[in-house]
Amino acid sequence: MDGFLASAELLDRAPSVTADPDRELVERFRAGERGAFDLIVRRHQKGMWRLARRYVKHDADAADVTQLAFVKAFHALISFRGAATVRSWLYRIAINCALTWIRDHRREQPQAIAEDALVASGSATATMISGEDSARLRTAIGALPPKQKLVLELRVFDDLSFKEVAELAECSENTAKVNFHYAVKRLREILVGGSDAR
User: Fold this and answer.
1) Angle at which helices 86-104 and 23-30 pack, to 10 degrees?
2) 161 with 154: CB under 8 angstroms?
3) Quick one: CA torsion of 56, 60, 62, 68, rounded to 10 degrees?
4) Hey, what's the torsion of the CAs at 134, 140, 143, 144, to 10 degrees?
5) pTM value?
6) Residues 137 and 1: beta-carbon distance below 8 Å
């Protein structure tokens, strides 16, 4: 479990990405090249699916939410202003679609986060939370206040910069950093009984 907390601290110090690698694809799409959108989909489909999967109960539901998000993005991309990165803009759409889906399917949704969404095979996250600690981590993350949970998941599991996290959480970058700090501190208290809290 210390590996997770140490990795979270390293992510806290990671440099933020300033250039948007998808901006050129947006311009190509606006110029009439529909294939540019296909490239955007291929680039972000897995990440958006993982994001949606943390909200919904089944893999198929996450695929539906992801597809709906891309449909909405396709129709809105022509008016994309560029105030955020394309990735954070897409993730915001996916979050909104997932929340709408949950509202419409509330009785079908579990209260806990799905384990397979947290432990994605082949990812750095999987090695941090594999084995018996994953259930404890899932429970601990579920106990966080909603804003701290969102910020932590976007930062750690989706590897977003604090600027992107702030855009998605609809708060300032400083507020995102503070929420992340308190989320990690709270996880430390829950997981190691406060002995490692500083």
Assistant:
1) 80
2) no
3) -120
4) -110
5) 0.60
6) yes
| Number of domains the chain contains | 1
CATH code of the domain in which 149 resides:
1.10.1740.10
| pLDDT at residue 43 tops 60 | yes
Q: What are phi and psi of 34, to 5 degrees?
A: -65, -25
Is 198 within a domain?
Answer: no
Cα–Cα distances (Å) from 118 to 68, 106, 156, in that order, read: 22, 21, 10
Whole-angstrom Cα Rg for the chain: 17
Range of the domain at 77: 2-192
Say if residue 138's pLDDT is above 90. no
Residue 197 lies in a domain: no
| Residue type present at position 2 | D
